[in-house]
Amino acid sequence: MKRIVLILTLFISSVIAYSQISASFLSNGTQMGAIGGAMQNPVSWEASVSATDGTPMLTLTATIDDGWHLYSQNHKGTALPLVISLQPSECYKPLQQKFTEIPEPTEHYDDFLNETELYHSGVVTYQMPLQALCDTTVQLNISVEGQACIDGACVPVETQLTVHCSLSVIEGQGSGDKGQGESLWWFFLIAFAGGLLGILTPCVFPMIPMTVSYFMKHGGRRQAFFYGFSIVFIYVVVGIVLSALFGQGFANDVSTHWIPNVLFTVIFIVFAISLLGYFEIQLPQSWVNGSAKNEERAGYIGTFFMALTLVLVSFSCTLPIAGAVALGAANGTWLKPIIGMLGFSLAFALPFTLFAVFPQWLNKLPKSGGWMAALKVTLAIVELAFAFKFLSVADQAYHWNILSRDIFLIIWILLFIVLALYMFGLIKFPVDGDGRPRRTKGRTSVGIVSLLFVVYMVPGLWGAPLNAISGWLPPMNTQHFIDSPEWESGAVMDYDEAMAKGKAEGKDVLVMFTGYGCVNCRKMEQKVLAAENVTKLMKENFIVCTLYVDDKVTALDEPYVTSGGDTITLLGDKNKYIQKVFFNQNAQPCHYIINPDDGSVVAGPMFYETDVDIYLNFLNTKIR
């Protein structure tokens, strides 16, 4: 009986609301809409499609009039829940069962109805990730039905929305590598810091007062500004060349191959030994002399060749830093090498321009001395550490088993012990000349920091996660004398095998695309997957499927035939193909929850994430 009374009450209040609102609009002489006399809806809608982490994202924005509230999709009470329907098409596939609501709906317990209401007010956004299945422009037809209320009076919410777009183009525009965790702005700042470091090198720092003094006598500030511009121009051209050579996706195809990684290892070791003073690396003298001769030309042409000469002369000191920026750019879009070289060169050119404008600052510059030798030794140790990181990537991808996690840590520990001993004045290198390094407060501070870093790394020899540097280390499963991480034990390494196992056991499949050379994959494993509550949920409710896309040697038991008729024989190639063709993704880490019965996506993609609660919400999307 009570239920009948409630329904009658809502019906009567809705009729009253309709009549009151209609009368209000008519009394004000307002047109009631395109369809003769229709009532205005208290909720206005907008629809758009954009790229989010390389995935086309359909976004609906609802603007709710003041005082009104719109019921959530998840509302289960007397009022009508919101229902958003996307018309099916052969050109796209929704990657979730329901739209994500942002923000979370408000919860309110109604004493009269004896139920908890879930609703939104103000502005709410509904998002649905899509998978593009066609290259052509498609039409997305969306219908919305629900109920909005104000002071007990409710009206139906009905609307039809249409969006025309090319999902494949949007997907390409947004396909960044979030698994790197760096925005272009953040990478620009890192490159800028590298340029500042390059200024302090012995090849560059002594040239600042000489170059500025020249411009104060010949050409003044305009020539100095052009000099700085020329330095930026030269480095940006290098960035454009790198972009043209490598472009987007370079990391997935090349950065885990043994040839570039072994080459980078050798280069960094050679430059480190050079920085320690055992020999000197120089460009062919003819290059430098040819550029220097053109400096004698008058005007801006001569200034440009002065900038080119600086870049060439500073080669032996700045290449390791600029090279590190370029290697970091290899993991991103075509724009990243250009952004990296722009940031590096802006910082590199900055002192020449500023000191020309404010020449009195020259008196405050520190004199060249032992601090430069200390800087070169520090750079050498850091380069050696990076060298073994490159070797580790190839070692994992090709299963050479040279650098296990504990061996890698021992090497790093020894390197930074050497750095500490040098800073304390207990050892010396040829870069110091005949004298023994003098102990200063700055050197002592660096030595203490280096020792503290060593103390931090030592527990890692016995399996400590070392979250701060976990992304740079080999995976935990390579460590000797300790078991593999609990989350990884029992994980299936083949997609088809995992789907079959999921069907047999009645569990969804947690598919995790990862890579041996993926820094953020290691971080996510240590910070999230190794968390006790995450591990427990994974092992109890899912078939865990770990797919390394850069495995170079593991052969398939049987050849895998693609949809195009090609034959794949290596596990890494199969995993890469599945991620690209089945999921339209190429970034790692990238996680999905899959229903093995029909292969549909239950949740995902989930990219690089270090918040345990967010990942738990992802896992809880559907638990059988």
Can you characterise this structure?
Helix content is 46%, strand content 19%. The strands form 4 sheets. Strands 3, 4, 7, 8, 10 and 11 form a 6-stranded antiparallel β-sheet that branches. The protein contains 19 helices and 17 strands. Helix 5 (220-245) packs across helix 9 (299-313) and helix 17 runs parallel beside helix 19. It has helices spanning 2-27, 167-173, 184-199, 207-217, 220-245, 250-253, 258-275, 285-294, 299-313, 315-329, 335-357, 370-397, 405-423, 441-457, 495-505, 519-529, 532-541, 571-583, 612-619; strands at residues 43-52, 55-64, 69-71, 83-86, 92-94, 100-102, 106-110, 115-120, 123-132, 138-150, 153-165, 508-514, 542-548, 555-561, 567-570, 590-594, 601-606.
